[in-house]
């Protein structure tokens, strides 16, 4: 299980509004009008204008094969983000975390969009609470085959070898891996692919957070118990899925273009 970063992000202004989003899975050719997730439209036109901090908790892109790959989706995202920043009532701080699809996002892209790349997991202190932020795939410990794959592709040597390939070859490899992953999922139960309750409880108790926020599982919900766990929704406009979690001085609220999701 991964370790929480020692340096917390602190939001000290009680007038701040924090928004969390995950699992947009923007396709390489996506633009504002053809994006099947619906996220680009929501980002530019619908996210709250009082947002002060935006946290993207992984899988912004369906495949990211390196910061040198000039795919249309990166420009479409930057344009939609610019639209949000123009609408916002205050300066927007953007934070980005790797997911299982876009773990090769690096400093060049973050500089382009004005984002800070967070380690996974990250501690966020706001409104008197400590929250743990993660993409969520590391908690799916029952899926041993996936965890083996995750460890492999997060190794520096594997990433260096992959990034040394031509961009076209990298894209071919990435979508071949995606196809293999989808085929493997059809042979697994939802329980195996979901976050393991024992692992979740052990991690929260070890790191002393009151709230855990993550995505990845595509099973949006609020889980109440010894701690509060928000599982963010994935985005799919056709299925009317998607949304964000709002955190302000009044607490948490599930919002989105299709209404409350939890």
Catalogue the unreliable spans: none
Summarize the main sheet. Answer: 6 strands, mixed
Mean pLDDT: 94
Task: Give helix and strand order, one letter per element, not per position.
Answer: EEHEHEHEEEHHHHHEEEEE
Structural class: alpha/beta
N-to-C span: 27 Å
> Strand share of the residues?
15-25%
Radius of gyration: 18 Å
Q: What's the total helix number? A: 8
How many strands in all?
12
Note down, in words, how this protein is organized.
The structure is a single chain. The protein has 262 residues and is of the alpha/beta class. The chain has eight helices and twelve strands. The strands form two sheets. A six-stranded mixed β-sheet has the order 1-6-7-8-10-9, with no helix packed on it. The chain is globular.
Give me a quick take on this structure.
With 262 residues, this protein is an alpha/beta fold.
Keywords:
262 residues, alpha/beta
Can you lay out the helices and strands and say which pair or pack?
Elements: E1 9-11, E2 18-21, H1 39-45, E3 53-56, H2 72-87, E4 93-97, H3 107-113, E5 115-118, E6 122-126, E7 129-133, H4 144-153, H5 156-163, H6 167-185, H7 190-193, H8 197-207, E8 211-214, E9 221-223, E10 228-231, E11 244-248, E12 251-255
Parallel strand pairs: 1-6, 2-3, 3-4, 4-5, 7-8, 8-10
Antiparallel strand pairs: 2-11, 6-7, 9-10, 11-12
């Amino acid at each position: 299980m991964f370790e929480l970063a020692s340096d917390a992000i602190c939001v000290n202004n009680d007038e701040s509004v924090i928004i969390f989003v995950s699992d947009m899975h923007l396709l390489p050719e996506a633009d504002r009008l053809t994006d099947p997730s619906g996220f680009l439209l929501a980002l530019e036109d619908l996210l709250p204008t009082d947002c002060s901090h935006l946290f993207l908790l992984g899988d912004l892109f369906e495949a990211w094969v390196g910061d040198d790959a000039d795919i249309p989706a990166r420009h479409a995202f930057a344009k939609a983000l610019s639209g949000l920043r123009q609408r916002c009532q205050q300066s927007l701080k953007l934070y980005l975390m790797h997911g299982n699809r876009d773990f090769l996002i690096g400093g060049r892209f973050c500089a382009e969009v004005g984002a800070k790349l967070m380690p996974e997991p990250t501690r966020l202190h706001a409104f008197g609470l400590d929250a743990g932020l993660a993409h969520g795939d590391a908690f799916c410990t029952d899926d041993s085959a996936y965890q083996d794959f995750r460890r492999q592709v997060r190794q520096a040597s594997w990433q260096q070898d992959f990034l040394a390939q031509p961009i076209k070859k990298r894209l071919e490899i990435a979508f071949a891996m995606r196809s293999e992953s989808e085929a493997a999922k059809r042979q697994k139960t939802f329980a195996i692919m979901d976050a393991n309750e024992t692992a979740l409880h052990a991690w929260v108790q070890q790191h002393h957070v009151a709230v855990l926020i993550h995505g990845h599982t595509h099973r949006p919900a609020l889980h109440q118990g010894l701690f509060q766990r928000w599982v963010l929704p994935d985005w799919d406009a056709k299925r009317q899925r998607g949304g964000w979690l709002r955190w302000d001085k009044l607490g948490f609220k599930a919002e989105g273009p299709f209404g409350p999701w939890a």
